[in-house]
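Researcher: I'd like a structural prediction for the single chain below. Treat it as a standalone chain; there are no partners to consider.
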Amino acid sequence: MQITETILNECNGVPQFGTNIERVDVSEPTSISSGIAARYATAVFALAKDEAGLATLEKNVAELTAALELSPELNDLINSPVYSREEQGAAISAVAAKMKLMPTLANALALMATKRRLFVLPALSGQLRALIAEEKGEVTAEVISAKAMTKTQIDKLAKAIKSRIGKDVNIDASVDEALIGGLVVKVGSQMIDTSIRSKLNSLQNVMKEVG
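Model: Treating it as a single chain, here is the predicted structure.
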């Protein structure tokens, strides 16, 4: 994904290291980050719904999620403390324009930049996907695997989960190599952990009790 790299190199207002640097601690607890993302997601979703723009929002969020997964430059932009508010704002606005994001989402990203909240962008994308899925009568299942799943595997898993809960399922897949093998599946408040790491941890606990 070269979108962000091109923008950071070519657009006016390019972030320059060493100029107008404003450092900030972005290591807020996950619960706080999730709460911040939820507030922005709720507002963006409501506005998009009022404007009959949920289909466009869904498309934009999918593209933004893909960009976050593929672009180290975009991740550096939203997480690095060396960029000032102004620099982040200029760059994220350029990214939004390049990706042709709907005004509601683009304006939210610009506001997040002024508030030093761009680091919650991955969580915002996840929250928006969940809200859109709920509106469509679907359920989002968070799936963590030791290695990337193929489309065929994702489709089979979605069908398996649907057979258990009776609703269409969107899979929000991510990778954690520390799992070693297996899956961790979370649907709402329910979690199924079939990872090898979990089994090893359980075995260690049993061995401690025996000892």
